[in-house]
Amino acid sequence: MRGAAALSRSPEGDVAAAEAADEVGQRLDVGCDLAVVFVTPDHADQLRAIAAAIEARLEPGIVLGAVAQGVIGPGEEVESGPGVSLWAADLPGGRPQPFRAWSVRTPEGGLAVAGWPDPDPDQVTLLLADPFSFPTTEVIARVGEQRPGHAIVGGLVTGGTGRSRLLLDDRIHEDGAVGVVLPAASLRTVISHGCRPIGQPLTVTAAERNRILQLAGEPATERLQQLVGEVADHERELLRTGGLHVGLVMDDQRDRYATGDFRIRGVLGIDPDEGAITVGDLIEVGQVIQFQVRDGASASDDLQARVADVGPACGGLLFTCNGRGQRLFGVPDHDVSLIERVLAGPVAGAFCAGEIGPVGDRSELHGFTASLLIFDEPSSMPGTWP
Questions:
Q1: Which pTM value belongs to this model?
Q2: What share of the chain is helix, strand, coil (3-state, %, to 5)?
Q3: At 269, which CATH number?
Q4: What is the distance between the alpha carbons of residues 282 and 284, in angstroms, rounded to a whole number?
Q5: b or e along 251-288 (b: 16 or more beta carbons within 10 Å of the residue's beta carbon)?
Q6: Among 263, 293, 323, where does a domain finish?
Q7: Domains in the chain, number
Q8: Residue 238, Cβ density class (10 Å: 0-12 exposed, 13-18 middle, ≥19 buried)
Q9: Cα(165)–Cα(37) distance, rounded to whole angstroms?
Q10: 230-259 pLDDT per residue, tens
Q11: How far is CA 293 from the centre of its chain?
Q12: What domain range is 207 assigned to?
């Protein structure tokens, strides 16, 4: 396996794509089974020309891509301004299987998903989904029930309302999802969270859809107020500056939980009159939650720890939250720089409105997370980076 990546910040989309593709082609020097491209909203209307430039120079088996709020290339995270990021590789174990999926209304008034692939449990699905039109949470939950162990990695990618663009070969879609099913050989995943738990785990004792009404028998807002009064001053400051989040415990059979044991969801509203806290997910009575804070220091430590034993690789695709980057760490290029130091291989990717990756034998839609798909490099093929 060989991989290569490049980033161009040229203001003209087709020029940027040509520059990135030429650089990737020089580094790859072999056939290209898969090319993955991400472009900033500045280039949303040039995606077709960008795809054509990549096709002409690399002749890849499959081109997959999207418009994203920000893009990631070797050593750099572009959080504003124009950017085209390209990652390409020749892949062992068979050709990737591309797919295009979308939601459809059923005669009963519900939603169904068309076009979803039928992967084997030991394969990996790389998924790029529009957050406004595709029921990602429901889809990956169903896959987890039917095929435990099958990993889905990727993100919710968009340039903003009305600026979603998904690319599969020469077709551009403004809704739904696109992706490829990859052979699992030489693939690994890493999930790192950007929030850490504070206070104690609490059981939901009353809820209404995405509103937490009671925690451990008391109004949810009263429990939150107790927490604010109990935490240390520096945690209270994090609550004030970084915002409050809720972690939904994924395995409630344990007594204590650590970073990585939760699905992180934002707090959308607090209603002291009703004692309710509204969060970005459906809540069930009996579910265990723990309040969370965004913490750049612990997020950095967690990412370092989770990639520490990965070792050299052919490269990786990184899906990191829009809320990370300089907003969280205070410095540019944090995630990609840390990961590339460990992988010693090229990394590219996108900033997302939700990150997808496996925890245990199920994949989840995460928030404030870095999700990394690693393509291992056989020891007989050193020196592919840079």
A1: 0.88
A2: 25, 40, 35
A3: 2.40.30
A4: 7
A5: eeeeeebebbbbbbbbbeeeeeeebbbbbebebeeebb
A6: 293
A7: 2
A8: buried
A9: 12
A10: 888 888 888 877 678 999 988 766 667 777
A11: 19
A12: 196-293
